[in-house]
Structure formats: structure tokens, C-alpha cells
Amino acid sequence: MTTYSIKEENEKIFVEVKGHTNYNDKGYDILCASISTMTIFTINSLDNLGYNIEDLKNEDGFISFNVLSDKTSKGIIKTLKELLDDLSKKNPEFINEK
């Protein structure tokens, strides 16, 4: 099961994605790969726009970071949340918001 959490406080946005979906065997889990791709794409997009990605942790089955909250970063993170929410609605046994 993968869980995700996106919270805003003290002018920062905190993102955490944790766990493996176990949708399929390792190496064939397209759901887990999709979640990882979306999250890394979000981090890279923020970084390419010059945002300072703080407290980045990227380990097996775990990604977390925080970033300054402004109009642009909120929009990018909102897109990530909408994508994760959509996957969660279609696959609630594999991914859920924490």
C-alpha cells in the first residue's frame, strides 16, 4: 500500500509518498512506477524553476520533501495531488491519502 500526504503550513508545502503499491511484482508494478514518476517529475519541475527543495529524502519506497509555498509551487503540487487522488479513486486497495 502506498500512502501520500501533502500539507501546507508556515509558508511551506510538505510532501510525503511512502510504501509500495504491490499492484504487481517488483519490476512490473506500473502503478508504483507511475507514482514514482509523477513525484520525481514534480521535484524536478520545481528544481528547474529555481525552487530550493528542502529536506529531500528519496529511498526505496519513500520520497519526502518540502518547498516554499507560493502561487507557482502550489499549482505544481496541486497537479501532483490531483493525479495521486485520481489513482487513489481508481485503485483504493493500492494507494490512499494519509
Task: Characterize this entry briefly.
The protein has 98 residues and is an alpha+beta fold.
Describe this structure in words.
By secondary structure, the chain is α+β, with helices and mostly antiparallel strands. It has one domain (2-97): Cysteine protease Prp (Alpha-Beta Plaits). It is built from two helices and five strands. The chain has helices spanning 30-48, 71-90; strands at residues 2-9, 12-18, 54-59, 62-68, 95-97. The longest helix has 20 residues, at 71-90. 20% of the residues are buried. The mean pLDDT is 97.
Biggest beta-sheet profile? 5 strands, mixed
CATH class: Alpha Beta
Low-pLDDT runs of 5+ residues are: none
Helix content: 25-40%
Strand order of the largest sheet: 3-4-2-1-5
> What gap, in angstroms, lies between the N and C termini?
11 Å
Which structural category do the helix and sheet elements fall into? alpha+beta
Described by the principal axes of the CA atoms, the overall outline is globular
Arithmetic mean of pLDDT: 97
What are the salient characteristics of this protein?
5 strands, globular, five-stranded mixed β-sheet, alpha+beta, Alpha-Beta Plaits, 98 residues, single chain, 40% helix
Topology:
Layout lengths: L1 E8 L2 E7 L11 H19 L5 E6 L2 E7 L2 H20 L4 E3 L1
Parallel strand pairs: 1-5
Antiparallel strand pairs: 1-2, 2-4, 3-4
Helix pairs in contact: 1-2
